[in-house]
Amino acid sequence: MPPSPLLLPSSRPQLEVRYIILPPGPLPPLNRLHARGTPSRSFVIGFLLAIWTQACQTGMPFVDILGASKTSVLNTANLAANAPLGLTTKGIVVGAGTLPPTPSDYALGNLILHGVAPGQLSYAACTFVDPYIVGDIVYAGISRIILNSSGGSIYIAEIGLYQSLRDTATANNLMTARDLLASTITMPTGTSKQFIYTFATET
Q1: What beta strand segments (E) does the chain contain?
Q2: Would you state the pLDDT for residue 3?
Q3: In DSSP terms, which residues pair with 123 in a beta bridge?
């Protein structure tokens, strides 16, 4: 039996996410930046579980970034990615894991923690570009500057996005996207990079 037309890929991207890694500095317009980015193909189940919690206004079973099984609750903080300086449980995060992403992934393969000790990176706060329209495409973005002050080189092989999803008692976070970089990035000590996810939806 042929697949339902509703399940066939569209010739027009309805939601396209890309990532790009740049030196720190002001971002160019997102429509130009998005065109330069690498397509993200690694939304995981957490992305839809968080949306469905809000859309259906009912609890969804999920696994948080620590591997604990939870049940979500409706909350205004759900989907938040506004990580402050130093927080690696929310927002854009990077790691050294090299296994290919799977739909059930709940965390990076090997998260690089915040700090200045060997093997650590210094995470700035996440910043956002609000949605705006260019032609028939709406763009938005989230970025984070990460600095290596560890005294040695750090190797980055993966990038991901952690977002809030509350359970009945406490704030929890889950992973909504994970991408394996095409090639491992070397960050010598004293250098920094800006990691960006861009979002585009076309009418």
Answers
A1: 16-22, 38-39, 61-63, 69-71, 91-95, 122-123, 127-134, 137-147, 154-164, 173-187, 192-202
A2: 42
A3: 146
Displacement of CA 153 from its chain's centroid (Å): 23
pLDDT of residue 1: 40
Domain ranges in the chain? 14-202
List, for the chain, all residue ranges whose pLDDT scores fall below the cut of 70: 1-13, 169
Strands (E), 78-191: 91-95, 122-123, 127-134, 137-147, 154-164, 173-187
Distance CA 136, CA 64 (A): 36
> At which residue do the structure tokens 């402050």 appear?
84
- Partners of residue 93 on adjacent β-strands: 160
Instruction: Note the pLDDT tens digit of each residue in 180-193.
Output: 999 999 999 999 99
> How far is it, in rounded angstroms, from Cα 160 to Cα 112?
11
33 phi/psi in degrees, rounded to 5: -65, -40
CA distance 24 to 13: 29
C-alpha–C-alpha distance, residues 135 and 159, integer Å = 30
The whole-number pLDDT of residue 8 equals 41
> Backbone phi, then psi, for 16, in 5-degree steps?
-120, 130
